[in-house]
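Researcher: Here's my situation. A collaborator sent me these components and asked whether they could plausibly form a single complex. I don't have experimental data yet, so a predicted model of the whole assembly would be a useful starting point for our discussion.
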Amino acid sequence: MIKNRLLLSSLFVVICVILGLSVGILTSNYYRSEETTPAIDGFLWPAPKVIPPFSAVNQDGARFTHEDMEGKWSLLFYGYTHCPDICPVTLAVLQKFYEKLESEANASNVQVIFISVDPGRDTPEKTAEYTRYFHKDFIGLTGSKSQVDQMTRMIGIAYFLGEKDASGNYLVDHSASIFLVSPEREWIGIFSAPHQPTDLLQRFQAIRSAVTKLKQ
Amino acid sequence: MRYVASFFILMSLFAPAAVFADPAIGVTSAWISEAPPMLKVHAGYLVIENHADDDVILLSASSNAYERIEFHFSDIIDGMASMKIQESITIPAGTRFEFSPGGYHLMLINNHNPLRAGDHVSVSLEFNRKITIDINMTVRKPGNYQQQQQHHHHKH
């Protein structure tokens, strides 16, 4: 009888220890995953690359540099104004994204930047007309070929100018992705095509709150 | 007689845009994406349905409103977008073919007059077997991205 009781109580202790251990292990995993906050598609963390110094010409013909990216969340899209399909579609997505932020009074520290990879045709005036068509706040950057190269190199993307046809038109191969840069000029996110406004907004907000938490 | 004539006039108002209508080929959802006024290349989208037992081939498109029209496919490989010119578009028997944003599109080059959302453009589609279908495309604000559903002509 006493033996049985001893056996039972020691079994009880063993079960308790096993239960305690497993709860501990499970919750420690849970807390660890809370700390690192990965799992946002396109979130470039840890060790994001800092955007190096650059200079370009904005839609008003004024100088725009890396310093103009500080203190704001920037969404970059590289394209060209003579692009009839992918570029208007992507800018229409960014327009809906930005209008949603505006309606939530959340757009003040967000800037959408269209970077032309066709400096031969895209003057600041043309870039201005193009970006303003989508939103009056959108920034359009162009510049000399070396300035454009600087801006594509900072993200590590390429672009190719196609052959001219009989009427002088040509196509340009360019990145279809949207890149996110933090207010501290860190390249912190990449969103791959095809883009959808609500998906873009959700991922942007998830990254923004994750980064804000991580830096507290 | 007068009633018969007015009946036909009335019916013609409801007739589809196709002038040389071919019951085997149906065209729906035809629209052109509005662009900033400085931009002289526009993208057009439509759906072609081939109800016939044979494949049909879209050979060319033309419009009085544009200098010329090409068929393009926006391809994205490893995040890089490039447009591929298509000489023609084959629509296999009993299938539908979608020209949609981010995929196949009509590339409408050099519009003669400014076009705004709400305007209409008449476009003539030339198929094989001497079939011509005239369609009415509505100009609309740029739409959402839609990945191509059918990749009949795209070789990966």
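Model: Some features of this prediction you could bring to your collaborator: The longest strand of chain A covers residues 73-79. Chain A touches chain B through 34 residues (CB under 8 Å).
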